[in-house]
Specification:
Blueprint: E1 7-11, H1 18-28, E2 32-36, H2 39-45, E3 52-55, H3 62-69, E4 75-78, H4 87-97, E5 102-106, H5 113-128, E6 132-136, E7 140-145, E8 149-152, E9 160-165, E10 170-176, E11 182-187, E12 197-198, E13 203-207, E14 213-218
Parallel strand pairs: 1-2, 1-5, 2-3, 3-4, 5-6
Antiparallel strand pairs: 6-7, 7-14, 8-13, 9-12, 9-14, 10-11, 10-13
Length: 220
């Protein structure tokens, strides 16, 4: 098993914009990359080798699978096709077991809404384990928070910041430095008041007493 690493990238098999992904890998300087099943196809196309490959390989190009099997230095975690979790969830939990303090999931959005929602729930599970996790694509960065969070305007992911309650109402929300501020507000699961806010100050401050929030930074 590899030494513990703090920041891990998990590449899943959803839609990935190549120019975005290649730049993201370079900027984030990941020390460890896990390919979840067909996520390996993107890496292979652009000449990159993952540190680990996880999956049942039921949706992978056999030629890509064979090419990686011939390479040294790759760890393998082979799953049974009949299993209770997705390949992405297995890869993410493996990243957690490796001691990750921060996990970025790319290729976890796309045409399959069921998979995307499941991946958002994964962010909540990781948050419970004390791990910062992000679901990222070319237009969105998603995280689940359970405490006061600051987003600096100069480093925000896009123009918009949306807030949604995660698994129940969130009480005592106060927003500062944003176009639409709130003061001691309760956000329940039936309202969309938290959608499409914008940072107007140097930073946005998100505070709340109870619950968890899905934070979506997005750009058109």
């Amino acid at each position: 098993m590899v030494q513990k690493t703090k920041k891990i990238l998990v590449i899943s098999g959803g839609a990935i914009e190549a120019s975005f992904m290649l730049k993201y890998i370079e900027e984030q300087q990941f020390r460890y990359i896990i390919a979840a099943d067909s996520g390996m196809e993107f890496l292979y196309k652009y000449g990159k080798k993952p540190d680990m490959i996880v999956g049942d390989f039921d949706s992978v190009d056999p030629a890509v699978l064979e090419a990686y099997r011939k390479m040294d230095g790759i760890e393998w975690k082979v799953l049974r096709p009949e299993k209770d979790d997705t390949d992405t969830e297995s890869a993410v939990q493996t990243a957690a077991e490796l001691g990750a303090e921060e996990i970025h999931i790319v290729g976890g959005t796309g045409s399959r809404l069921d998979h995307m929602l499941a991946n958002v729930y994964l962010l909540g599970l990781l948050r419970e384990e004390g791990i910062s996790a992000y679901l990222v694509d070319a237009h969105n960065r998603v995280q689940v928070i359970d405490q006061r969070t600051v987003i600096k305007r100069e480093t925000q992911y896009g123009k918009y910041v949306s807030l949604l309650p995660f698994m129940g109402a969130v009480e005592g929300i106060t927003l500062k430095g944003m176009k639409y501020p709130l003061e001691d507000y309760t956000l329940d699961h039936c309202h969309s008041i938290g959608i499409s806010n914008e940072i107007t100050g140097e930073q946005a401050e998100i505070e709340f007493r109870t619950g968890r929030l899905v934070v979506i930074e997005s750009k058109d």
